[in-house]
From TrEMBL:
One of its GO terms (molecular function) is carbonyl reductase (NADPH) activity. The keyword Oxidoreductase applies. The lineage of its organism: Eukaryota, Metazoa, Ecdysozoa, Arthropoda, Hexapoda. Belongs to the short-chain dehydrogenases/reductases (SDR) family. GO terms for cellular component: cytoplasm. InterPro entries: Fungal_SecMetab_SDRs (IPR051468), NAD(P)-bd_dom_sf (IPR036291), SDR_fam (IPR002347). This is C-factor. It comes from Odynerus spinipes. Coiled coil: none annotated.
Length: 248
């Protein structure tokens, strides 16, 4: 893939993805990395200073009306090549809570960043994704080298796998993102744009906590390996970091 935009890159999996991509023997020509506050993205800025391929975009993704800023920056860099991959990684979680502890503010805030933002950003960048897909339509199969939307989901968004309850805001927002992923895959099939949702595993990040069994490098390496294998048969699916299909 010549270009990729990843949201939520100041830390955790987003930062890990940028680090791994720029270290590839043939890295993408353009790696767009969004973060809410560049003053708190020290490591990301250091990476960008060393590599001319990383472009940091400072933006609060809850401000969906400001997404044209992202589109303009990406368009200026990629030109007529379009954008190959949009990786909707940014997200927030809430601590485990039973129904009696659920707060409306938590629900609405979590839905805004975990569900609404990925949908609206996909809509905003769709023209650039379509250009990339059209440019690479000689390859009839879908792939990240043509055009793709990757939505970072969670196994907690699986209704079938829910055997513990709780986590209302996070579970519901990720289940809704999964539904959006499926809908996008149908809507964008004729455009040759691949759409999948990925579960990164339980990873030691600020969101996953210190008790998580997997480190960031392991998760990111696995995700990138799976991304390379994605094709038309995978569009509209819910996949684990190792490529295993998860139940909705």
């Amino acid at each position: 893939m010549r270009s990729i935009l990843i949201t939520g890159c100041n830390r955790g999996l987003g930062l890990g993805l940028v680090k791994h991509l720029v270290q590839l023997s043939t890295p993408p020509e353009n790696i767009f990395a969004t973060c809410r506050d560049t003053s708190k993205a020290t490591e990301l800025k250091e990476l960008a200073e060393k590599s001319g391929k990383i472009h940091i975009i400072e933006i609060d993704l809850t401000n969906t009306s400001n997404y044209q800023k992202i589109v303009n920056i990406v368009k200026e860099k990629v030109g007529s090549a379009g954008l190959n991959v949009l990786f909707n990684n940014a997200g927030i979680s809430q601590k485990f809570s039973r129904l009696s502890m659920v707060k409306e503010e938590n629900l609405t805030n979590t839905f805004l960043i975990n569900t609404v933002a990925p949908i609206m950003l996909s809509k905003a960048l769709l023209p650039l994704l379509k250009i990339a897909s059209k440019n690479n339509e000689a390859d009839n199969d879908m792939s990240i080298n043509r055009a793709a939307i990757i939505n970072m989901s969670s196994i907690l968004g699986s209704i079938t796998q829910n055997d513990q309850g709780g986590f209302y805001s996070y579970r519901c927002s990720k289940a809704a993102l999964n539904a959006a992923t499926k809908a996008m895959s149908i809507d964008l099939k004729d455009d040759g744009i691949l759409v999948v949702c990925l579960h990164p595993g339980w990873v030691r990040t600020d969101m996953g906590g210190n008790n998580a069994p997997m480190d960031i490098d392991t998760s990111v390496s696995s995700i990138l390996n799976v991304m390379k294998t994605l094709s038309t048969k995978n569009t509209g699916t819910f996949l684990q970091y190792d490529g295993t299909t998860l139940p909705w």
